[in-house]
Structures are given as structure tokens and as C-alpha cells.
């Protein structure tokens, strides 16, 4: 499924798709973006959104293991939708960085759609976790990995 199809598959994301040209990035979502020679700069909406995605992914990991109920799953999915919507609306990135970000976000959109449909498994969780590993390889986020426990 292309990034454009993944975005349009989520009702919450449909408005974002209209505001942002995701079709231009569909090819980038099909495979992982290579790490740039120098990591791309981040802005506050990107950093906040990725932290929300990390927390929601952690919750879905617990859900997948049977530790959370469907309401908690739905809350994690709503958090993913809100984080992605905010990033689409507010992130201001260079075109290459934007394309790489779309490749990462497409995996969260697909995972959220699977969870929303009640068919969330390790097959959907794995790519989301991989995107969280790729993020600091692609983007310069000095506080990534620091937890406020």
C-alpha cells in the first residue's frame, strides 16, 4: 500500500492528505530512506509528534501482549492520529527530510489502521518500532531517547 493510500485509509488523516501532498512521497514510503550524510534538522512539532508516537507505540506493544484493553488501544490510536495530524499541519521541513518523515509515518498510519480494525499484531508493531529506531538516524533530535521517568 502506498503512503497516499495509507493516509487516505484513515478517516482522521483524510483532511491532512488534502492539505499536504502525500502522493509525491509515496515512493519514499515503500522503502526505508537511507541515512543522510548529515541528519536533518527537527522542529518542535516534529520532536513532540515523534515522542507521542513512541509513547503510543509502547502502549500498543503492551496491548499486543494482552496487557491493555480495547479502550486503552483506542486511546493509543487516537494519540497516533493526533500526533500525525499535528506533524502534517505544523512541521516545516526541507523536501528530502519531509519525504523521509513520510516514509516513517506511513508505518504508524498502517499500524493505527490495523489496531482500529482490531487486527493489530507483531506484523504491524514491528515496522512502527523500526521507524522509531530510524528516526534518530535520519533526524537530529538531541533529546531523543531521554526519558522523563
Report mean pLDDT, rounded to a whole number: 81
Q: How is the largest sheet built, in terms of strand order?
A: 1-2
Q: Note the beta-strand portion.
A: under 5%
The domain count comes to 1
Protein name: DnrO protein
Region (Disordered): 1-38
Organism: Luteimonas notoginsengisoli
Biased composition (Low complexity): 1-18
What is the compact description of this entry?
The protein is mainly α and 149 residues long. The chain contains seven helices and two strands, in the order H-H-H-E-H-H-H-H-E. The chain has one domain.
Descriptors:
single chain, 149 residues, mainly alpha, two-stranded parallel ribbon, elongated
How are the elements arranged and paired?
Blueprint: H1 3-9, H2 11-19, H3 26-29, E1 40-41, H4 44-64, H5 70-90, H6 95-116, H7 122-138, E2 139-140
Helix pairs in contact: 1-2, 1-6, 2-5, 4-5, 4-7, 5-6, 6-7
Region (Disordered): 1-38
Protein name: DnrO protein
Biased composition (Low complexity): 1-18
Amino acid at each position: 500500500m502506498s503512503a497516499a493510500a495509507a493516509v487516505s485509509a484513515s478517516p482522521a488523516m483524510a483532511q491532512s492528505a488534502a492539505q499536504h501532498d502525500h502522493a509525491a512521497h509515496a515512493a519514499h514510503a515503500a522503502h526505508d530512506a537511507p541515512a543522510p550524510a548529515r541528519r536533518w534538522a527537527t522542529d518542535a512539532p516534529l520532536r513532540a509528534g515523534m515522542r507521542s508516537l513512541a509513547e503510543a507505540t509502547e502502549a500498543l506493544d503492551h496491548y499486543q501482549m494482552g496487557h491493555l484493553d480495547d479502550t486503552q488501544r483506542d486511546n493509543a490510536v487516537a494519540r497516533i492520529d493526533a500526533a500525525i495530524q499535528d506533524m502534517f499541519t505544523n512541521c516545516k521541513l526541507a523536501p528530502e527530510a519531509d519525504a523521509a518523515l513520510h516514509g516513517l509515518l506511513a508505518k504508524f498510519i498502517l499500524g493505527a489502521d490495523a489496531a482500529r480494525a482490531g487486527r493489530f499484531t507483531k506484523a504491524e508493531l514491528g515496522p512502527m518500532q523500526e521507524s522509531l529506531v530510524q528516526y534518530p538516524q535520519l533526524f537530529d533530535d538531541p533529546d531523543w531517547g531521554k526519558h522523563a521517568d
